[in-house]
Request: fold
Amino acid sequence: MTIAKNTICIWFDKDGEAATRFYAETFPDTVVKSVHRAPSDNPSTDAGAVLTVEFDLMGISCIALNGGPAFKHSEAFSFQIATDSQEETDRYWDAIVGNGGEESMCGWCKDKWGISWQITPRALSEAMQKGGPGAKRAFEAMMTMKKIDVAAIEAAARG
Reply:
């Protein structure tokens, strides 16, 4: 197995393996690659407990570190998932929120481990990239939403 040159390390209290297995069940091209156990007791866990989990999340190399309760997640870090349809948007949103997560605004939600996700339909990104009055209308429509409504964004962009 090759070690990636750049890897995102996500700090969990103790549920890194459960989180990565949920991500692998939820997102395509996501796989748990390996689970590593602590070789000895340490401040965050006992010898033999899961210490790190290597996984790829939709092609991004990541590692979950069970580091204990010292650090909490915030919206300063999030995964942004581009979706191609309302069905795909609903599927990811509902999986995250329906598995103990919570809704936020403008396509943001948090999973039950506190990781923030932006479930962002390409229709919204494309409207914003075009600029002008359509982008302004799409942005204003998005600001009223929790989960993004693709049809409403497209209608707003058209005027």
Observations:
- Residues 78-158 form a domain with the 2,3-Dihydroxybiphenyl 1,2-Dioxygenase; domain 1 fold (CATH 3.10.180.10).
- The beta strands are 8-12, 31-37, 50-57, 60-66, 78-83, 102-103, 108-110, 116-121.
- The chain has five helices and eight strands.
